[in-house]
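Lab meeting, item 3. Inverse folding demo.
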């Protein structure tokens, strides 16, 4: 039976914990997977995600199940696609009265619309859910300083500034999409999301509506 604290752990935290339990350094694990140590660091800090083949190998090497690594309330299945991108290939000009204030965010909108040209694409506002320990620290800081938010929440916000989130409906399927400065990652959802507010993994989201055409 999985403990509540384990369910709240991110994929990166689970990988790091499982690697240490297996007695492996990042360098040793990278050699076994034939990937760079930097890739392991990215996975463990939630700045990237291993593809399906690497997840299978990690499951065997670290003696943990793929379900455990990806568990997020059984919302996401194993249909994961990740592709590298170059934002410099896109030119974004903000439209009058609508569109993104940030040029980089606008380019990421263009990336996802190019990937899913005939789909209904919703922009999402995402916020990382604090762990139990972070909540305690956050509340303590707020109590002592009268600040409406604490250091953990600020750090989580900074850590995720390069990510834009989307919910894509295409041909009867629904995809959860993340676009960073370096890649686009799409995960087909096992169960469709219809709520305005929802959670996936350790993030809570608000559906901001269909993004504008270009």
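The presenter then showed the designed sequence:
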């Amino acid at each position: 039976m999985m403990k509540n604290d384990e369910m709240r752990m991110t994929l990166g935290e689970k990988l790091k914990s499982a690697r240490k339990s297996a007695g492996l350094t990042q360098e040793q694990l990278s050699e076994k997977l034939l990937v760079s140590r930097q890739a392991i660091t990215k996975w463990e800090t939630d700045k990237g995600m291993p593809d399906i083949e690497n997840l299978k190998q990690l499951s065997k090497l670290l003696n943990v199940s793929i379900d455990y690594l990806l568990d997020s309330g059984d919302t996401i299945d194993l249909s994961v696609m990740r592709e590298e991108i170059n934002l410099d290939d896109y030119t974004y000009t903000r439209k009058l009265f609508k569109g993104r204030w940030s040029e980089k965010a606008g380019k990421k909108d263009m990336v996802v619309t190019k990937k899913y040209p005939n789909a209904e694409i919703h922009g999402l506002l995402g916020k990382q859910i604090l762990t139990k320990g972070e909540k305690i620290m956050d509340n303590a800081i707020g109590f002592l300083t009268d600040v409406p938010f604490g250091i953990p929440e600020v750090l989580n916000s900074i850590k995720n500034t390069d990510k834009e989130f989307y919910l894509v409906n295409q041909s009867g399927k629904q995809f959860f999409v993340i676009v960073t400065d370096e890649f686009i990652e799409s995960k087909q959802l096992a169960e469709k999301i219809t709520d305005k507010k929802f959670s996936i993994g350790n993030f809570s989201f608000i559906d901001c509506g269909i993004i504008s055409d270009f």
